[in-house]
Amino acid sequence: MTFTFRPLDPLRDAELLHSWVTHPKAVYWMMQDASPADVERVYTDIATDPHHHALLGLDEDGTPVFLMEKYDPVHRELVGLYEPLPGDVGMHFLTPATDTPVHGFTRAVITAVLAHLFEDPATSRVVVEPDVANTAVHALNEAVGFAAAREIEKPEKRALLSFCTRERFLAATGVAA
Predict the structure, then answer these.
(1) Which terminus of the chain has fewer CB atoms gathered within 10 Å of its CB, N or C?
(2) Predicted structure pTM score
(3) CA dihedral for 71, 87, 67, 168, sign (positive or negative)
(4) Per-residue pLDDT band at 56 (split at 50, 70, 90)
C-alpha cells in the first residue's frame, strides 16, 4: 500500500474527521462526544499551532484514509513528563473504523507514518504515549520498532511512553527512511 500526505484543512475535513473521531472504535482518541463544531475548532487550533500539525493520509486515489498528527514534545503533550532529546518528534495516528477491514492496513499506515517522519533528517526519534489499556496499539508499535520506556501520568490518561529510533524502525520493517 502506498500513501501520500496532505495538510488537514479544518473547514473542509471537519465532517469526515467527526465521523472518524466519534466512532466507538476511536475511544482512545477521546472525542466521543465531540460535535462537528468541536472537531473543527480542535483542528483549527492545531492548524495555527507552530508545534503541532495534522495531516491526512491519502490512498492511491487521493482519498483520505487515516489521520496523522505530529508534535514537538518540547512544547506539546509531554512537557515535563520526560526529558526530550534533540530530534524527538511526537506522533498520533488514527485509522477510521470500517465495515470492510483490509488485512495489514493499520500496520501499513503506521509504517508510512514513521517513514514520513524519518524522511526529515532532523528527526532522530519518534515518541508516542498511547493509553496503557490500548494493548492493540502497543503490539503494533513494537512491531515497527518502538520500545516501551515507562508508564506516565497525563492529565487525560495513564500512558505508555515509547520511543522508536530510525535504526530500530529500519531493523523492524526494512524500510529505509
Answers:
(1) N
(2) 0.93
(3) negative
(4) very high
Q: Order across the sheet with 125-128: list the strands.
A: 4-7, 52-58, 64-71, 88-94, 125-128, 158-165, 147-153
139-168 confidence digits (pLDDT tens): 999 999 999 999 999 988 899 999 999 999
CB 67 within 8 A of CB 93: yes
Integer Cα distance of 144 and 69 in angstroms: 18
Are 119 and 10 a contacting pair, CB within 8 Å?
no
DSSP 97-158: P-SS--TTHHHHHHHHHHHHHHTSTT--EEEE--BTT-HHHHHHHHHTT-EEEEEEE-SS-E
Average pLDDT, the chain: 93
Neighbours of 12 (CB within 10 A): 10
Q: Are the C-beta atoms of residues 67 and 94 closer than 8 Å to each other?
A: yes
Give strand pairing partners of 158.
153
